[in-house]
Design goal:
Length: about 110
């Protein structure tokens, strides 16, 4: 997962338990934000990806999700989309002034 390299103490200091995307808003990992994040998400292979919400227990496996667009997620709150190998993550937050974020593991 994208937060594996962050220590438990650092996670606690950024309230990671409240919102996973705090790792990006507190600039603990390099990421793209706003329109750049949306553009990067559009360029990713989305033949298979997973979608999950911060406040829900379910995770959805999406197959042939090439038509899933960042614009379609704009009204969603605290949703993450990841590839099957967790090499990239796209996050749409509930805050108008935070995100969306896109992170790609190097």
């Amino acid at each position: 997962m994208f937060a594996d390299a962050i220590s438990p103490q650092e996670k606690q200091s950024i309230y990671f338990d409240q919102f996973l995307w705090h790792i990006f808003s507190y600039e603990k990992l390099p990421c793209l934000e706003g329109k750049e994040a949306m553009r990067a998400f559009r360029e990713m292979n989305r033949v298979i990806c997973y979608l999950f919400y911060q406040e829900r227990e379910e995770t959805y496996m999406l197959i042939n999700a090439e038509n899933l667009r960042a614009e379609g997620l704009r009204n969603e709150h605290d949703v993450c989309v990841v590839d099957p190998h967790f090499m990239w993550t796209y996050v749409q937050t509930h805050e108008d002034y935070c995100g969306p974020y896109f992170y790609r593991k190097e």
